[in-house]
Design a protein that fits this description.
3-stranded antiparallel beta sheet; mainly beta; 6-stranded antiparallel beta sheet; single chain
Length: 130
């Protein structure tokens, strides 16, 4: 679940190369009153190079994006492997793979529901090591 205090589109992705950028990733983007959350390939910053992933490759379930009481709320479930990331090895109930995952999120300016460039201040990242 992603929650934004205001009304705008929301996006979240994982970069398999542990680099701090969305280019080269798969991301889930939701646009309130425009389109339910959908997974995309982000090949460039230009919107013409953002293409939807087929439903056979990205099995999103329980998708929604709503504006409720001043907040944009996006929800979805997706199998981990559909992000095209290295899968961890499970042994003795522990996961191992010593891989860095860079988790990125972005949003539009308040009031924008249609996807556009997020600008330098509407994004963040976090790196997780497994």
């Amino acid at each position: 679940q992603l929650v934004y205090d205001g009304f705008t589109w929301l996006g979240i992705g994982w970069n398999p190369n542990a680099t701090p950028q969305m280019i080269g990733t798969r991301a889930i983007i939701g646009q309130p009153n425009v389109q339910e959350p959908t997974m995309y390939h982000l090949d460039q910053k230009n919107i013409d190079y953002i293409t939807a992933v087929s439903s056979s490759e990205a099995r999103l379930e329980d998708t929604s994006i709503e504006y409720i009481e001043g907040e944009t709320i996006m929800e979805f479930t997706v199998p981990f492997q559909d992000w095209e990331l290295p899968l961890p090895v499970v042994a003795n109930n522990n996961m191992y793979n010593n891989h860095l995952y860079t988790f990125l999120w972005a949003h539009g300016n308040d009031g924008e529901s249609k996807l556009s460039y997020h600008g330098p201040g509407n994004k963040a990242l976090s790196t997780i090591e497994n």
